[in-house]
């Protein structure tokens, strides 16, 4: 793709996006993202657009990629032809309108190393984007840094997710997984794998929470009162509405460091791998700091000697060992410090590896090990992580904060006791997640602070009330999160309707002993009682709910986990990865609170490993099943909201095509020579056209698609041959964050025969 917005006048795909040429909002918005899902879109989107166009449905594109967002943030630095509009801001408005119908693919939530790399690539391509100021020295740099900070981490999802989350495996997908089980590692009862978490002085144990009265609502201030009474304003204005649940908590830096030091010793003594699992992208302020502590404590003897030198050179451990090694190498004392690092590493426990062939450790990049995907993959593998010797080994999974660690601890304990889950017979755990309007920790970015000096951190509410305050020390990580009343009520109602639809077990994963959860329970119980459905639901701590849910699905039964935002994220990778092998196949619906719909594709990420494989051997293993499911839902939603019968027929045909891809085993596989993403899109198009050609509800659609189906059938061998000619050889995409449009197109649309057949529509 080129750097221009896909809806900008000269953008490459624009010419084919004819529905975008008129000014009306397209019926459906598809998102341009990054990495593997974006590569897949270059092949799949033209299929979708041409089929939809033939049915009078327009599909437009908005660019929410990392590169696109960076370009949109610095218009004054760029030539007019390089600029592009702020599509994310536009989409952020659209999702608040009842007309919204968005298909949202996973985008990069960038860590600092990813952001820096993307900027470097753009600069090399002639975009005069400023450098990311690691340590802003003046107001101008602070302003630049603020723009980058708005792009960093989970900057897209919190803006678009104006509704709560309904994630589950479509019935066809679950049935397929049961009859075609993925491999599961065996769990040994004597596995030494453990989950370790802080015993106190963390976010969980320090949490305080309050539901605001009308008097307390309004503009509040967050401040730090020093021992001498001096007041440092941390945030001068946060606005709250009545009924909002506001939490405040902190993690003690001293307690964290002591915990990490203990874990290093414990891991070494146990002879297992050391691994830390965080969400440095979604918790973009707190978790990179925690990650930095881990890097620092791991390398403590080196920091004791050279810490001041590193600090003077502006080198922070928060960006990870990878960046630190690069920066240290450039120092005059570089060789000496690198030798000191090697000496420390030799004494430390072996590290869990991201890529043992390339020497990339758990501590290299804060966004390489993302807890929602990393721990489930380890559990799926029978509790094994990869060590530096390239061999699988038992692992200490360190999750500093204890709020959510119990779900993994209980899973590990359960599988040690009972052995791995059997995907052939397991039921499913669906999720209803509280997520709308930046609920809970999701929205805590602007209200998280690394405390500059000892004192009392507190929130002063509009009427002067101070109900949330903590004695803190320098370096402590203090954070406040809030959850509005309307999203909470909407979430409980969504849970009621999902439970009614499924008729299965439904559990609110809430801990009455946790301050925040206790406030939520005060909302949940009366709503359930008023609806007369209290007996259909249970409320359990996350640990107890984990055990009960695992026992339920082991019996082949189903459960609905009704959870807060972080657990939504964790559970919608954990259960799918165990049940289906991956979370990419999930149906992920966001019922927008103002009436629109957003259909996310899968529950996972942007699979950087897959891009690497494509570049090395021109095989893309990305599975677009999530996109197929989202497309079907989006079309059916369009049919309902706009009373569009053709959209309904198109949507039902998508479901049949998806079923066809599954039944005929046409999903991508891992190796060169096997079906890949592009070939699976051909089969999807074939089955979609066949479904439209064999329905009897709309004769014009039948007339349009019968010849298309025939042409696709007749040219199967030619198309597959064209798609596979380049397999096994390197593929040049002309970039990573900003790939070259023509090069990417020639890789991803490698069958001229297929392109020609679609061009008829
Ligand atoms: N909603 C969003 O926008 C999300 C974005 N992200 C972003 O994605 C990036 C990578 O995150 P990470 O935690 O590594 O998670 P990913 O889900 O991208 O990757 C984990 C692994 O899951 C498997 N996988 C994921 N999707 C697919 C798919 N469609 N088809 C086949 N396999 C798949 C792959 O494993 P294998 O090849 O071994 O089968 C992959 O290596 C980060 O930048 C993160 O911020 C992450 C989560 C959600
Ligand atoms: O927003 C993000 O950074 C990641 C979101 C995610 O992982 C999810 O919603 O499952
Ligand atoms: Mg996730």
UniProtKB/TrEMBL annotation:
Q: Which GO terms describe its molecular function?
A: isocitrate dehydrogenase (NADP+) activity; metal ion binding
Q: Tell me which species this is from.
A: Yoonia vestfoldensis SKA53
| Positions with a binding annotation for D-threo-isocitrate | 167, 568
Tell me the leader sequence span. Answer: none
This enzyme's EC code(s): 1.1.1.42
Tell me which residues bind substrate: 154-161
> What ranges does the record give for the region Disordered, renumbered to this chain?
1-23
- One GO-annotated biological process of the protein: glyoxylate cycle
Q: Which NCBIfam families match?
A: monomer_idh (TIGR00178)
So which cofactors does this thing need?
Mg(2+); Mn(2+)
- What protein family is recorded? Belongs to the monomeric-type IDH family.
Under Pfam families, the record lists:
IDH (PF03971)
Instruction: Output this protein's name.
Output: Isocitrate dehydrogenase [NADP]
């Amino acid at each position: 793709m080129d750097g221009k917005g896909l809806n900008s006048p000269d953008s490459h795909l624009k010419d084919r996006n004819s529905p975008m040429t008129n000014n009306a909002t397209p019926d459906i918005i598809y998102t341009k993202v990054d990495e593997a899902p974006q590569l897949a879109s270059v092949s799949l989107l033209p299929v979708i657009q041409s089929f939809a166009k033939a049915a009078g449905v327009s599909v437009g594109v908005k660019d929410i990629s990392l590169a696109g967002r960076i370009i949109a943030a610095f218009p004054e630095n760029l030539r007019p032809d390089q600029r592009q509009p702020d599509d994310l801001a536009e989409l952020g408005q659209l999702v608040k309108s009842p007309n919204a119908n968005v298909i949202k693919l996973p985008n990069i939530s960038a860590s600092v190393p990813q952001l820096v790399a993307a900027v470097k690539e753009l600069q090399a391509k002639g975009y005069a984007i400023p450098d990311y100021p690691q340590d802003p020295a003046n107001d101008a740099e602070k302003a630049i840094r603020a723009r980058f900070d708005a792009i960093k981490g989970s900057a897209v999802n919190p803006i678009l997710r104006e509704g709560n989350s309904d994630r589950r495996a479509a019935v066809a997908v679950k049935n397929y997984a049961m009859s075609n089980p993925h491999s599961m590692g065996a769990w040994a009862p004597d596995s030494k794998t453990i989950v370790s978490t802080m015993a106190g002085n963390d976010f969980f144990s320090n949490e305080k929470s309050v539901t605001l009265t009308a008097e307390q609502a309004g503009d509040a201030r967050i401040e730090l009162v020093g021992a001498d009474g001096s007041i440092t304003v941390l945030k001068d204005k946060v606005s709250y509405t009545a009924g909002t649940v506001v939490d405040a908590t902190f993690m003690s830096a001293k307690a964290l460091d002591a915990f990490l030091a203990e874990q290093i010793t414990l891991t070494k003594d146990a002879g297992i791998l050391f691994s830390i699992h965080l969400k440095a992208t979604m918790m973009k302020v707190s978790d990179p700091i925690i990650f930095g502590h881990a890097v620092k404590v791991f390398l403590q003897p080196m920091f004791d000697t050279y810490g001041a030198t590193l600090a003077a050179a502006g080198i922070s451990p928060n960006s990870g060992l990878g960046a630190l090694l690069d920066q240290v190498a450039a120092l005059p004392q570089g060789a000496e410090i690198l030798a000191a690092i090697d000496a420390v590493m030799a004494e430390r426990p072996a590290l869990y590896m991201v890529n043992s062939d390339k020497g990339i450790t758990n501590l290299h990049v804060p966004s390489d090990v993302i807890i929602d995907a990393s721990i489930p993959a380890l559990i799926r593998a029978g509790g094994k992580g990869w060590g530096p010797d390239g061999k699988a080994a038992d692992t200490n999974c360190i999750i500093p904060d204890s709020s959510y660690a119990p779900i993994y601890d209980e899973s590990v304990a359960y599988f040690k006791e009972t052995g791995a889950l059997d995907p052939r017979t397991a039921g499913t755990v669906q999720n209803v997640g509280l997520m709308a309007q930046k609920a809970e920790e999701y929205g805590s970015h602007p209200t998280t602070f690394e405390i500059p000096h000892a004192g009392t951190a507190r929130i002063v509410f509009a009427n002067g009330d101070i109900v949330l305050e903590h004695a803190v020390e320098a370096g402590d990580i203090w954070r406040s999160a809030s959850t509005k009343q309307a999203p909470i009520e909407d979430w409980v109602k969504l849970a009621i309707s999902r439970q009614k639809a499924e008729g299965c077990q439904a559990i609110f994963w809430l801990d009455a002993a946790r301050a925040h959860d206790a406030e939520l329970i005060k909302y949940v119980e009366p709503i359930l009682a008023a609806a007369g459905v209290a007996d259909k639901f249970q409320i359990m701590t996350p640990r107890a709910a984990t055990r009960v849910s695992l026992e339920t699905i082991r019996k082949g039964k189903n459960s609905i986990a009704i959870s807060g935002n972080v657990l939504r994220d964790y559970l919608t990778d954990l259960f799918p990865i165990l049940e289906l092998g991956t979370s990419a196949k999930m149906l992920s619906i966001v019922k927008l609170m103002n009436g629109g719909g957003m259909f996310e594709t899968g529950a996972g990420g942007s699979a950087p490993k897959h891009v690497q494989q494509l570049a090395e051997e021109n095989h893309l293993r990305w599975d677009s099943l999530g996109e197929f499911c989202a497309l079907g839902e989006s079309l059916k939603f369009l049919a309902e909201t706009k009373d569009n019968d053709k959209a309904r027929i198109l949507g039902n045909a998508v479901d049949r095509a998806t079923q066809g891809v599954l039944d005929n085993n046409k999903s991508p596989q891992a190796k060169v020579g096997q079906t890949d993403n592009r070939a699976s899109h051909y089969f999807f198009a074939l089955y979609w056209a066949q479904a439209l050609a064999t329905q009897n509800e709309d004769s014009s659609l039948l007339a349009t698609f019968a010849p298309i189906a025939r042409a696709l059938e007749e040219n199967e061998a030619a198309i597959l041959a064209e798609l596979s000619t380049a397999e096994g050889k390197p593929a040049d995409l002309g970039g990573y964050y900003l790939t070259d449009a023509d090069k990417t197109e020639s890789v991803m649309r490698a069958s001229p025969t297929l392109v020609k057949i679609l061009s008829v529509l």
